[in-house]
Amino acid sequence: MKTKKRLTLLGSTGSIGDSTLDVVGRHPDRFAVYALAAHRNSEKLVAQCLKFRPDVAVVGDGDTAASVEAQLRAAGSLTHVTYGPQALLDVSKSAGCDTVVAAIVGAAGLAPTLAAARAGKRILLANKEALVMSGAIFMDAMRDSGATLLPVDSEHNAIFQCLPREVSRGDASLHGGVSKITLTASGGPFRTRDPATLVDVTPEEACKHPTWVMGRKISVDSATMMNKGLEVIEAHWLFGLPSERIDVLIHPQSVIHSLVSYADGSVLAQLGNPDMRTPIAHALAFPERVESGAGQLDLAQVASLSFETPDYERFPCLALAMQALATGGIASAALNAANEVAVDAFLARRIRFTDIALTVAAVLDALPNRSADSIDDVLEADAAARRAALEFIASRLSGRGENGAVQ
Length: 407
Fold this sequence. Notes:
Radius of gyration: 21 Å
Largest sheet: 7 strands, parallel
Number of strands: 11
């Protein structure tokens, strides 16, 4: 009988958390949940704890912890409830788990994911910021500890599946005849919209993705295509390829999830319905394959697949991410931080949709670039970029008045 993989799921109440637990629930003989970590969604976390019976539940603050603990005790649950940043670090490196699913959105996921890497865990990476912010530091920690990194993002997981097994984790530029990789993108909800009208986009419109069901922040990132830019940076670190050998191709049907081109002219692509349970199941069971709950792809029903190159004038955030990767140093960390601040402001209706790219560009121009040799360098860059972004947003609002915000 196989030993069950024991999972710590960081970000259990988000869309990736939902999909992961759906797959886990289909295979109780293979997977057990050691810890679930959320922020403040106590009702959903309690329901997950009662179903999957983790040893530990982690939340963001003491009040949420007290609420979760009271509900669990009333239901007879023995799950230990704790809270705060240190608790996240503790469950990420605990001997109680062997696998960490890193699905916390944004910079908040960096520290626990890095802790899991340093502890030599098997990491299923859905938090792209860990590599965007601290790529070299993170990959060095993986190598030093002997940890295993399996990508969960549909695009990176697709590339992982299409690479030769001996280079699926490592430097693809040195082995296997790989000439380039291509990340596909749906183009989001504004792929064909007149760019002149994007200034009037509302948060509701930006969050209405045509093919994927995602959280609000990542939905906005998809609408600006910053998400694809962050994925390009992540792919650089995951697969060891320089930026000039990483392409982006818009593919509205979201059926081909990414491609790998080889020196002999061959191109391998991974196809499937747009369902995150497919890459999650692949990473959870790797190197085996298990049923994910996703439907089988029917190409006859899809009928046609279309492709186009991205328009950088329509999607300036994608160009900014490419610029940050080429610049190196702290630029990617600054890009990510400025984008997080700008997206939060847009969702709060304080700035316009088109101000997101303007904010990021202003921050990259304002901050002097330098090397990122330690996690402290990364965190300092993150903090400086957030301050600069808030100052730029304040100046925009001051210049146009509150009526300039999204109504």
